[in-house]
């Protein structure tokens, strides 16, 4: 892990360094979180639902501050930062409105007595989050667990410490009890220590395979429940009958939103022969019209990557792939700027033994594959270690739904690119992880489904 530092990737200037958490700070967070868990166990979730609605209002009030901080720390377009804050407001409102009902006991049909299960809080949840959506990733875990009554300790990515602190401040300003969300600047060793603490009952990580494997191992060793939202190499399948206007509109940002740094970005564009040339030229049109510049500027459509290190890593990955035979169909012209810019590119001819074939490229690189037919498209889509999201572009929606059931991913969008909304479950299979965030499934991730049965009602 690097140091906790805010470095503006547009200027590559260091803005601020943050010291790591001390042992005393960690102990204080665990003590306060545990105390709050016991307080919350005695309260109705409806009380927290009101507070969560106030948290949504607090984010509305600080919408611009939060968005500016995120853009400054990881370089995303300011307008996309504003969209991210709005999405988080929706998530808080969704759980404020629906969470209490979701937590009602579920009756069970049995002849053995009067039976139901409660959905109870379990304790402190540790959330390890990535920089790519600095607020959304936090709120996906925080909002449902707040309603459930599980306090959250946050370990955010090293490059968005200011966003982590600001999120906690906005939540506290809304009147949420202290320890509802506690941000700690932890080292990897300290993460293991927190996970092994008896007061912590679950771990949610969103990030890469590398981070996921390490944190899941610590959770497993300590018998703690975990959810892993990891990387993706999402197939975007274009069938013969794809509607041209739909295709054009979806391709316009399927690979470039958030600078291409989206886990569910359409990374592998899989096209049937008859549409291959058209898709390549459509993508070239999108990529070549991007406007690099200051992410705060409304006219900019190509922001820097989140850090110079990330831009260098992506370049090294691509260079290796090209050395192994991938062809560069298009590359954006040189960008004369000191920021962490990466020249977007379109790659073709990626063979199965190319290192890129089964690697996630986390930035504006489209990998385009030509296949002979629909079956070959499905086979290629499933020939991956990852299984997060997928897309199918077709005019025959019923057929698209049938094909969706044949794809080994956690999510499929028909006639669109990736999507997220509070009411839709988010997550994957294979090396993309396990568990779901958002929707009712996300709310249940860390509850105790506590069976209660009165056997004096035994009807047998
Ligand atoms: P990352 O390096 O795995 O980091 C994610 C978080 O885990 C950070 O807080 C990081 O801390 C921490 N971490 C990393 N290695 C660790 C280790 N060995 N032990 C303990 N903690 C560790 O991921 P990233 O590169 O920041 O994020 C991009 C990845 O996230 C991509 O693969 C993307 O696809 C994935 N992602 C998945 C989803 C999803 O919902 N499935 C959503 C968004 C992003 P430091 O920053 O201090 O290293």
TrEMBL record:
Keyword field: NADP, Oxidoreductase
Keyword RNA-binding: no
Listed InterPro entries: Ald_DH/histidinol_DH, Ald_DH_C, Ald_DH_CS_GLU, Ald_DH_N, Aldehyde_DH_dom, ALDH_GabD1-like, GABD/Sad-like
Source taxon at top rank: Bacteria
Domain Aldehyde dehydrogenase: 3-448
One GO molecular-function entry: succinate-semialdehyde dehydrogenase (NAD+) activity
EC number: 1.2.1.16
Enzyme class: oxidoreductase
The UniProt record lists the keyword Oxidoreductase: yes
Catalytic residues (positions): 229
Family, as annotated: Belongs to the aldehyde dehydrogenase family.
UniProt-recorded name of the protein: Succinate-semialdehyde dehydrogenase (NAD(P)(+))
Originating species: Lactobacillus hominis DSM 23910 = CRBIP 24.179
